[in-house]
C-alpha cells in the first residue's frame, strides 16, 4: 500500500511522522480530494484534519483514516496539538506555504518536538504507478487522441487560436475528460516559436504551422499531448526540421530502458538534434512525470539521475523554437515503461508529418 511504503521512508529518516500538506499527495495516500486539509502520517495512525465543510466528504472518500474535525471558531494548529507532542515530524518543503510552516514550527516547538524538511518523499512513490493508475492514464490519453480526431476537421481560416482552444476544451469534456489538464496551448504561424504560447486572438491563416498542446483528466489522472502540423503548404525547410525533431523523439523513446538514468534519455534527444545542427534551439527538458498531476516528479532533464523503473509514466516532448525563422515545432507523447521494459506510447494520434487542408 502507498502508506506502508511511506512509513518505511519515514522510519528510515528517523522521523515519527510526516505532515502532508500537498493536496495531491493527500489524495494519493488516503483518497481525500478536498482542497483544504492536513494529513498526519505516523507509524500506526492516519489522521486527516479538516473543517466542517469537508467532514462528510472525508468520511465518504477515505477508509482506515481518523477524521479530526476542526471546530467552528477553532484552528488547525490547536486541533493538531494533542497528536504532535514530542515528535520529530517531517514537512513537505516544496509545497507548504510559509504562513502554515511558521505556525506549525511554533506549535511543534511548544509541544517539545521539531520539524524536519523532506523533499519528494511521497512524489518518489507516486512516480511508479499501480495497474489501476496506468489504466486511468491510458483512458485520459485515449480521450486526448479522440479530441484531436474531432477538432482537426473543424479548423478554418480566420478562426482564432482562442476559439480553437475553446473547442478543444469543450470536446474533450464531451468525450469524458474531467477538465483541462492546464491552459490549452494553441499557437499558429510565428507564434509557434513561443514554447508555451497562450492561445490568442490571432487568426489562423492558410499555409502556416499550428501547434496544439493540451491534456485531459480521467479519474484524477492526466494526459498531455502536443502535435504540430501544416495548415496548408509550408516551406520545405520546416518539413525537414520536423523530420529531424521526430527522429529525435522516436530515438529517445526507443532508448528508454529500466536501469538507465532519465538524464540519458534527454541527452539522446539532444545528440540527435546536435547531429542536425538544431540542438541550440531545444530550450527545455525532454519531459516530465505524469499522473495525478500533469507535471510530476521527476523531470527528464539532462542531469537527472533518477533511474528508470517499470510502470513509470512520463512525457517525451522535444521541441525546437526558431523565432528568427518564424516557427517552432514540438512533438509530445505520454509513455509507460511496460513489463517488457519498453516505453509504450499511450498517446497514439498520428505524429508523422501531417498537412491539413485549408477551408473557408
From TrEMBL:
Residues 4-128 form the Creatinase N-terminal domain. Signal peptide: none annotated. It comes from Enterococcus raffinosus. This is Xaa-Pro peptidase family protein. It holds the Pfam family Peptidase_M24. PANTHER family: AMINOPEPTIDASE, AMINOPEPTIDASE YPDF. Residues 136-338 form the Peptidase M24 domain. InterPro entries: Creatin/AminoP/Spt16_N, Creatinase/aminopeptidase-like, Creatinase_N, Pept_M24, Peptidase_M24B.
Amino acid at each position: 500500500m502507498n502508506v506502508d511504503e511511506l512509513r518505511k521512508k519515514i522510519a528510515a529518516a528517523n522521523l515519527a511522522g510526516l505532515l502532508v500538506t500537498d493536496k495531491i499527495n493527500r489524495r494519493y495516500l488516503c483518497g481525500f480530494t478536498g482542497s483544504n486539509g492536513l494529513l498526519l502520517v505516523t507509524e500506526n495512525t492516519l489522521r486527516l484534519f479538516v473543517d466542517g465543510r469537508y467532514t462528510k466528504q472525508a468520511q465518504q472518500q477515505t477508509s482506515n483514516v481518523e477524521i479530526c474535525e476542526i471546530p467552528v471558531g477553532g484552528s488547525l494548529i490547536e486541533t493538531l496539538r494533542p497528536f504532535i507532542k514530542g515528535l520529530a515530524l517531517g514537512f513537505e518543503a516544496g509545497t507548504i506555504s510559509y504562513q502554515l510552516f511558521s505556525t506549525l514550527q511554533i506549535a511543534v516547538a511548544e509541544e517539545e518536538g521539531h520539524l524536519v524538511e523532506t523533499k519528494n518523499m511521497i512524489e518518489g512513490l507516486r512516480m511508479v504507478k499501480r495497474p489501476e493508475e496506468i489504466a486511468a492514464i491510458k483512458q485520459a490519453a485515449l480521450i486526448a487522441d479522440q479530441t484531436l480526431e474531432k477538432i482537426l476537421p473543424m479548423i478554418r481560416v480566420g478562426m482564432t487560436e482562442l476559439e480553437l482552444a475553446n473547442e478543444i476544451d469543450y470536446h474533450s469534456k464531451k468525450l469524458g475528460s474531467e477538465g483541462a489538464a492546464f491552459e490549452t496551448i494553441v499557437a499558429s504561424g510565428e507564434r509557434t516559436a513561443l514554447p508555451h504560447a497562450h492561445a490568442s486572438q490571432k487568426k489562423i491563416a492558410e499555409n502556416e504551422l499550428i501547434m496544439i498542446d493540451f491534456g485531459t483528466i480521467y479519474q484524477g489522472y492526466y494526459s498531455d499531448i502536443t502535435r504540430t502540423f501544416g495548415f496548408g503548404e509550408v516551406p520545405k525547410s520546416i518539413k525537414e526540421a520536423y523530420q529531424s525533431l521526430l527522429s529525435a523523439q522516436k530515438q529517445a523513446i526507443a532508448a528508454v530502458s529500466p536501469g538507465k538514468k532519465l538524464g540519458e534519455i534527454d541527452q539522446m534527444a539532444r545528440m540527435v538534434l546536435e547531429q542536425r545542427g538544431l540542438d541550440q534551439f531545444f530550450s527545455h527538458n525532454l519531459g516530465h512525470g505524469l499522473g495525478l498531476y500533469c507535471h510530476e516528479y521527476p523531470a527528464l532533464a539532462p542531469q537527472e539521475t533518477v533511474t528508470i523503473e517499470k510502470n513509470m509514466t512520463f512525457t517525451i516532448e522535444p521541441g525546437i523554437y526558431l523565432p528568427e525563422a518564424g516557427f517552432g515545432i514540438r512533438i509530445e507523447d505520454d509513455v509507460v515503461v511496460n513489463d517488457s521494459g519498453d516505453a509504450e506510447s499511450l498517446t497514439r494520434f498520428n505524429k508523422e508529418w501531417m498537412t491539413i487542408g485549408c477551408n473557408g
